[in-house]
Structure formats: C-alpha cells, structure tokens
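Margin note from the TA: students keep mixing up input and output lines. Inputs are the sequences; the output is the structure of the whole complex. Example:
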Amino acid sequence: MNELTINLKTNSATPLYEQIYDYIKNDIQSGRIPYGEKLPSTRSLSGYLEVSRSTVELAYEQLLSEGYIESRPCRGFFVSEIEELYYLKRAEPQTGRRRAEQRSYRYDFTPNGVDLKSFPYNVWRKLSREILTDDRTELFRSGDSQGEYSFRSAICSYLYQARGVNCTPEQVIVGAGNDYILMLLSTVLGPGLKVAFEDPAYMQAYRLFKSLSYETVSVGMDRSGMCISQLAGAEADVAYVTPSHQYPTGTVMPIGRRLELLKWAQEREDRYIIEDDYDSEFRYKGKPIPALKGYDADGKVIYLGTFSKSIAPAIRLSYMVLPEPLLDAYNKKSRFVNSTVSKVDQLIVQRFIEEGYYERHLNKTRALYKSRHDVLIEELRPLLDICSISGEHAGVHLLLTFRNGLMERELIERAAKRDIRVYGLSDYMIQGTKETSRTVLLGYANLTEEQIKEAVRILADCWR
Amino acid sequence: MNELTINLKTNSATPLYEQIYDYIKNDIQSGRIPYGEKLPSTRSLSGYLEVSRSTVELAYEQLLSEGYIESRPCRGFFVSEIEELYYLKRAEPQTGRRRAEQRSYRYDFTPNGVDLKSFPYNVWRKLSREILTDDRTELFRSGDSQGEYSFRSAICSYLYQARGVNCTPEQVIVGAGNDYILMLLSTVLGPGLKVAFEDPAYMQAYRLFKSLSYETVSVGMDRSGMCISQLAGAEADVAYVTPSHQYPTGTVMPIGRRLELLKWAQEREDRYIIEDDYDSEFRYKGKPIPALKGYDADGKVIYLGTFSKSIAPAIRLSYMVLPEPLLDAYNKKSRFVNSTVSKVDQLIVQRFIEEGYYERHLNKTRALYKSRHDVLIEELRPLLDICSISGEHAGVHLLLTFRNGLMERELIERAAKRDIRVYGLSDYMIQGTKETSRTVLLGYANLTEEQIKEAVRILADCWR
C-alpha cells in the first residue's frame, strides 16, 4: 500500500496526528486494511498528505503502542495479526434507568433521622477554611492507614471521658462509616466465623455480615438484652450487641448481663464481642450508660463508635477500638489497607472535638431531642389505653405496642393513608414476621415539636 | 441499711447525683454492699445527706438503668444479684507504643509519589468554601449509597471523552479509595472465586484479595502483558489486569491481546476482568491508550478508576463501573452499604471536573512529569552501557535492568548508603525472589529536576 487518502480537517479540534491514527485504526478494525499489509512509509505518507513527517510518526507510534501495527526493522510498518478481530465491537452505552423515587410523606417518623438545622455550619466552615489555609502539601499527602495519630488520640480522650473506655491510639482505627469498618474488621477476624445478633437487630450490620459471607445466628432477647443461655447454645464465635441502648428496642443491658456476656467470650480464646455504641450520646435520664468496653479487662470487646449519628450522616467517620489480642492480626493482615477518610475531614473533626465544639453540639442536640421526646410522650398520653410506650429513655425513637387488636401492617397502612410514615418493628426482626408484630417505631429527631403534635393527633384519630 | 455516709463535695464539677451514684456503685462493685441489701429510701437518704430528694432519685435511677440495683414495688430499692461480680475489673489502659518512624532519605525515587506543589490549593479552597456556603442542610443529609447521581454523571462524561468508555451513572459506584472499592466488589462477586494476577503485580490489590480470603494465582507476562495461555490453564474466575500501563513493568497491552483476554472471559458466563486504569492520565508519547472497557460489548469488564493518583493521594475517591450482568447482584447484595465518601468531597470533585479544573490540572502535572521524565532519561544515558530502561512512556516511574552483574539487593543497598532510595522489582513479584532480580524502579513525580540530576550522578557513581 503506497497511499492512504485521508480527508484531513486542518481546522478541526482533533490534532492532525490523531485524525490519521483514527482513520487507519478504523480501517484495520473494519478489515479494510488486512493483516500483514505494509503501511506507506512515514516519508511517503507525509508527502502525500502534505503534513510534517513527525505528525505521521506520532500517528504510527500511537498505533504501535496500541498494538494495531508492528514495526519490522529495515522494512517498515505492517498491520498486526489480531486474531479476535471479529470480536471487536465497541461497547454501546447502556440505556439510563434512574431508580424510581421513593414516596415522600408529610410527616416521617424515621428512626434514623438527625436534626440538621442544628448542625454548626459556621463552625464547620470556619474549621474547614482554617485547615485548608494552615496546612498545605502535608494535608494532601497520603496519610496513616489507621487514621491520623493526633485524631486517634483525640478519640481516646473522648472515649475515656465520655464512655469510660481506656484505650491507646494504637488500638483505634478510623474509617469511612460503620459498614466500611465492619468490612475491615472482617479481614482482621478472618472468614468462616459464626456471628450472633440480637433479635430484633440493627439490620444494617446483620446484612453486612451476611454479604461478607459469614454464617449468622439470631439470639432472642429478654428485658436485659441478649439471652446468654441461647447465645451459649448457638456456637457463635462473635456476638454483635448494642448494650448501652439496644437497637431498635431501646433495652439497656444491665451490669449483670454484661458480665455474663464477657464471661461467655472469656470461655474460648477466639470469641469476641462487637459492641456497637451507635448513639450513646443521646440519653434523657441521668448520664449516659457506660460502655461495655470499659469493663473489658481481658481484651474481648471490639468497640465501634461513629460521628455520623452524632454530627451528621454525611460525615462519613466511624472508628473501632481493637482489643490487644487482635492488634497483631490487624498489623499483619489489614494494616496495608489505605485509609478511607481524607486528612482534611479527620482534622476538622479532631479540632471540632478538641476545641469543645463537639461537646457543645451534643448538649445542644440532646436538649433539642429531649424537648421533642417530651412533647411526643405528652401527646401520646391519650393513647395509652390502647398501647404502651417502650425504649423511650435514650436515642431518637420510641416503640409503641398496641393492645387494641391492630397489627403492625394495619397501623402503618392507616398512618400512610393520612400521609404519615411510621415504621414496623418487624423490619428489624430476623426470625419474626409482620404477621405477629403489633409494634411500630416513631423517630422524632427529624420533626419539630409542632409537627409532632399535629402528626400524633392524626395518628390517635386513625389508630382508634 | 438506713444510711450511707457519703462525703459530698458541693463545689465539685461532678454533680451531686453523680457523686452519690459513684459512691454506691463502687460499694456494690467492691462487695461492701452485698447482694440483696436494701438501700435507704430516697427520702431518708436525701434527709441524711441534706440534698434534694430528686438528686437521690436521679442517682438511684442511674443505678437502676445500669442494673446495679432493682426496684421492688412498695418495698424499695435492693442491690441486684450480679453473678459475675468477681469478674468486674476495669480495663486498664494499654501502654502506648508508637510505631518506629521509617528512615527518611535525601532522595526518594518512590514510584507512588505525586507532586503536591502543583496541587491547586486555591481552587480547592474556593470550591470547598462555595459548596459549604451554597448548600446547607442537604449537604449533610445521608446521600445515595452509590454516590451522588450528578457526580456519577460527571464521571461518565469524563470516561467517555478521556477513556473511550461508554457507561451510565447507574453503573458507576463511588467509594473511598481502591481498597474499599475492591472490598465492596467482593460482596458483589461473592466468595470462593479464584483471582488471577499479573506477575509482577500491583501488590496492594493482590494482598487485598488475599486478605478477603480469595484464592489467588499469578500468571506470567510476556511483552504484550498477561499470557492468555497460562491464564486459560489457571482455572481462574477473575483476571485482575492493568492493560493501559501495566504496574509496575509499564507494558501496554496491545489490541490483539486485549481481544484474547475478552474472549477468555467470554468463554464462561461467570468470568470477569477487573481493569485497573490507575494512571492512564500520564502518558508522554501520543495520546492515552484507550481503556479495555471501551471494547467490552458483552459486559465482562469491571473498570476501576481513581482520583487519588491524579489529584492527590489524600483525596480518597475512586469508583468502579460495573458491567450490566453484575448490576442485579449489586442492587440485591450490596446496595444497602452506605457510601464512604462525604457529599462535600463528591461535590468538590464534581465541580473540579465540570468547571475544567481537572483537565487543566492534568495538563499541568503531565507537563511537569514529562520534564522530570525527560531529565531522568537524559541523565541515565551515560549508564546505558550497564543497564537498560523500560516502561518509560507512561506513569511516573521507569525500570532499570542491569547487565553488569549487580543484583537488585546490592543496587538498593549501594544507593541507600548514599542516602538515596530506589525500589526493587522483586517487591512486586508474586513468584520471583530478590535473588534473581536485577531490576530497580525509579519514580520521579516527587523529585525536582535538580534533585533528579544530582541523585542520578550519585547513583551512576555507586552503581559502577
């Protein structure tokens, strides 16, 4: 082949070399230039196309790099043999399918709500600006895979003061949310374990362990929390618990049960307890219940904490405290995994804690949620002849269990007809079903006092 | 028991109710108040201690919540039976052990470097400030688990223009770094698969799949990349490849080999290819090599991209493009996993791309790296009688293979004695060992042209 008639567009945004490259590539792909064909020399093609020789050379080099042509010394450029050429078809774009939007309700008693109006935007913006100004290159260099040491130290101080947990920064691992932290933990613990969950449970963790291919088992609860006798019979390796405020029932695990649980873990060297301390900050009677981890003298408790619940859901920042016996495994098997939280975010939250903003924010939201909580309890009073309230001393939701014959499904449906969303306890049950539940959850973090009053009046009307 | 002599400190920062609670709790824990003992009534204790009755009530309520005491109707408060009381000892803080600092070198030719001086701090700060000002509550509400739709759309446009990849936002999943993305992918793919790696390999991914308990197999490479005949014999389910620029050898997989690889995947319904397109942005001859994903007409290629390499390591932002056949599995098994990237960071990078800053930043760093690359090649020229250069057309490192009898270990040691760090190819080998390698890696992203000149002169001296 001595010439290639390429219609070059000199005023195009595509460089000339790229037009030549595209033309020849398409001809090879379509089979118009067959395998083994010799391409014109760069000199002859540049003369023919009236472009510089380096333009043609650049086009040939690109074809060479991508394997369309090959260079034979002293002979020139030849089309490569591409055995699977018949296979060469461009991937077409998939048709876009946006998922259906969820129905929105006038009043949504979501138990996962957070009041974002009280989020300290100005402080956040200020800290963010200061950090981006102060520190320059260091801030964007890759950080410690475990999380910044100074940030982990701040977490330790907070845990000691607020949760009675004694730990060192070496035991703390920072990550982008609980789900990720549990994924990372699974690489530390290794596969093939059986994980026991409270039932009803924090389903997000239950589903996560299932998706990580762990065997799971549900253990019933009595009024002190997870039943240890059932747990002992379940042959589990790990127990996932929420002792300070069981999710979703709100049960507080009393000291006796906590010690029984620790004793269960103590019986075998490779047994562990995962303590998910997800919302210990919000307690309305007395002071927060101390963490189980505070009594973990034998290194059996893996403690999980999060700022997503206490600051804002979009702050993807959780951490775990590994007990001493798991640190070796972490260092050997999982320490190489890069951190999932940017240094900027770690430093913002660190200063948020150290400069007292976190405590102030917690006090403010606790007071806010307490008022909403009190209004909700007050408004529910006229309904207490047909239902009872439980789990109301902490967190941001409570449970209503009905005695007037209405089942969960109907309670939800009647509320939905009046544009109010309430949540069924059965959503959190591993063994139970919708058919037997008479309990709904009402979260109040997201609603104003006025909205709560108005919504409960409607609920009282439709549930009678 | 009718009285408890508690030495209350009225001027203490600890509230009175908490002092009472602490005192009684300690006495129960130490066994000084035995099981079954009746506590004084709230009225009598408040009279005795000269505090308000509600103060004592609050202390008792806290003890009640934590399970230290129980209330018997019409009889009063009694110390609970806590069977495991002997077990109750506070966890002591572990002794802090900071890990040893790594040795630092005068010149470090790390292949993982990024020039952070060219990071557009002012733009970043501006975007960050604008985003935190514009949008308020929405920004801190929990986001789409897959990543924000608008951000995923921006990624699609970028992939189409820059990498020849056609995909929809529904196929894109955003996450905090490659390691996390691979963890998430493992929940989509499920357990029990065998993953094939190029050898030498990107060890971070290799170690990650091992830590996720996958069986792994290494497949040799020839000058076109992974050997398909070896791959075919390896009985792998997934092949992990870096076709546009093999890490660490720099090989570009030619079109023929790419099609063979696609054909391998096509042979069985559950075979997939993971294309890690980690640094396609940096190519110094012609235009970037198109992504393998661009030819994936049958939904066999899982594409991985990252902004950590092209913007800054501390930006924890990667993404994967799932082929259509895996979307169902993702939606069923893994979509519930919360996003690991804050909305703020997603919006900053989205605007960084959409407003043209990303392209400008890439052009700027590409030019910068190209100059350093050219200087390094030029300075190495006098050494070409004892070694040869490879993998130099793209990325931010090149390889030197020695013919003068020096082994990798000695090359590294001699350089270290002169305070220069170079990296052995054997660090990336799955099968190979230090004993046979004569190749070192020199990364240049982190060093100025002057530093490169100076360091190579020293290296030339010590490697002769």
